[in-house]
């Protein structure tokens, strides 16, 4: 999947989408399961001086250095210490024909589940505390709402996109 393709939700012909769900603070997020390469215990990270705050560190993943992203910053959530449940979800995005891996630090990984298009809505234009373009869909489930993150839009400026700086939401007080 290219960065452009990942900016649209690709429901199957039956209106379903397989996703991996995870927590950031008290919010439940999801990314498409086809983007996930691996779920890891936390790895030792090296801070990169001058790097964008969203991906301020890197880790050695099977002999390859990958950036580690903290999506809390994109969504304006406060920083949190790692716990025993914290994990890194390694996703792979196509950037100009090159498969690029990025680790996403999470508070807890839940499961691969199927979301249904008929339970989804686009983000509202009013009342949302996050950037609308960072969210593809809000999906209702019996357990609450799942935020389907738009990784292409979040990482695009960092991966040679429009040449703009990612806009990080202000942290909640």
List keywords for this structure.
173 residues; OB fold (Dihydrolipoamide Acetyltransferase, E2P); 6-stranded mixed β-sheet; disordered N terminus; single chain; mainly beta; disordered C terminus
CATH class wording:
Mainly Beta
The CATH superfamily is known as: CheA-289, Domain 4
Contiguous helical run count: 2
Distance between the termini: 37 Å
Query: Strand order of the main beta sheet, please?
Result: 9-1-2-12-11-10
- The SSE string, one letter per element, is EEEEEEHEEEEEEH
Structurally, the number of domains stands at: 1
Q: Strand tally, please?
A: 12
The value of Rg in angstroms is 15 Å
**Range of strand content:** 35-45%
Using the coordinates shown, work out and report the CATH topology.
OB fold (Dihydrolipoamide Acetyltransferase, E2P)
Largest sheet: 6 strands, mixed
Helix percentage: under 10%
CATH architecture: Beta Barrel
Structural class assignment = mainly beta
Which regions are unreliable across 5 or more consecutive residues at pLDDT < 50?
1-6, 162-173
Mean of pLDDT: 85
Approximate shape: globular
Please give a structural write-up.
With 173 residues, the chain is mainly beta. The protein has one domain: CheA-289, Domain 4 (OB fold (Dihydrolipoamide Acetyltransferase, E2P)). It is 5% helix and 44% strand. The chain contains 2 helices and 12 strands. The strands form 2 sheets. The chain has a 6-stranded mixed sheet with strand order 9-1-2-12-11-10, with no helix packed on it. It is globular and about 45 Å long. The N and C termini lie far apart (37 Å).
